[in-house]
TrEMBL record:
Enzyme Commission numbers on file: 3.5.1.105
Enzyme class label: hydrolase
Name under which the protein is recorded: Chitin disaccharide deacetylase
Molecular function per GO: chitin disaccharide deacetylase activity
Requisite cofactors: Mg(2+)
PANTHER family: CARBOHYDRATE DEACETYLASE, YDJC DEACETYLASE FAMILY MEMBER
Pfam families attached to this UniProt entry: YdjC
Top-level taxon: Bacteria
Keywords tagged on the record: Carbohydrate metabolism, Hydrolase, Magnesium, Metal-binding
Organism encoding this protein: Exiguobacterium indicum
Gene3D superfamilies, sorted: Glycoside hydrolase/deacetylase
UniProt KW Magnesium keyword: yes
Taxonomic lineage of the native organism: Bacteria, Bacillati, Bacillota, Bacilli, Bacillales
Length: 230
């Protein structure tokens, strides 16, 4: 069977300490070989230290527009009165932002990442918002500007900038199982999205996806990939 380049990417690095711990454990004891950092998370400094301690773990930026507060001073149009982003996971039904403001905010998040001294592996986004047709040109502009790639969600016309030629998001919710991981089919390259975590005091307040993160961590740290993964 031909080898397949499989990137197992853990989202939300830097959001909480429990998420950081779950990702690192799933890297050391499981197939996670990549992660993307939320630069406005509660535990970014710890995530940076852990990245420096584990250089075999590729790290990119998990661009945010639907959680927490922005980093750029020019992002008032993207926020509510309390200063947090006005967008949610239901962004497709919400009023689109000005693409220029999104560009400046996401550029600020990337620059904050680069200021840590870490190498930028790729880009993706919280809730896959970079694939929203109202702003999907921004991820293309940023990938070109920073000479990197992005998650294959949307932008079919720019496959040359995709991280992999396939994106698998089935290991989520009801799909969290060994069977889902075993059902990944061979191909030239595929990214598998995961969300492992340990419980911490903040986790229930920052996400509705709580218990399944713990299940994901348990399964990932006990999973042995097939021989054709590379």
């Amino acid at each position: 069977m031909p080898k397949t380049r499989v990137i197992v990417n853990a989202d939300d690095f830097g959001l909480t300490t429990g998420i950081n711990q779950g990702i690192i454990e799933s890297h050391l004891c499981g197939p996670v070989n990549s992660t993307t950092m939320m630069m406005n998370g509660h535990a970014v400094e710890e995530a940076v230290r852990l990245s420096q301690q584990h250089p075999d773990l590729h790290v990119g930026v998990h661009l945010v527009l639907s959680w927490g507060k922005p980093l750029a001073s020019t992002s008032q149009s993207l926020t509510k009165e309390d200063g947090t982003f006005r967008f949610t996971s239901r962004f497709l039904k919400e009023e689109p932002p000005d693409p220029k403001d999104v560009y400046l905010e996401w550029k600020a998040q990337i620059e904050a990442f680069l200021a840590t001294g870490l190498s930028l592996h790729h880009l993706d986004s919280h809730h896959h918002i970079h694939g929203w047709s109202a702003i999907d040109s921004i991820i293309v502009d940023l990938a070109n500007e920073y000479q990197t790639t992005f998650r294959a969600a949307g932008n079919e016309k720019h496959r040359d900038l995709w991280l992999t030629n396939r994106f698998d998001e089935r290991f989520y919710g009801e799909g969290v199982s060994f069977a889902t991981l075993d059902s990944i089919t061979p191909g030239s390259s595929v990214e598998v999205m995961v969300h492992p975590a340990n419980m911490d005091a903040l986790l229930p307040s920052v996400t509705s996806y709580v218990n399944q993160r713990l299940v994901e961590k348990d399964l990932l740290t006990r999973y042995t990939p097939p021989d054709w993964w590379t």
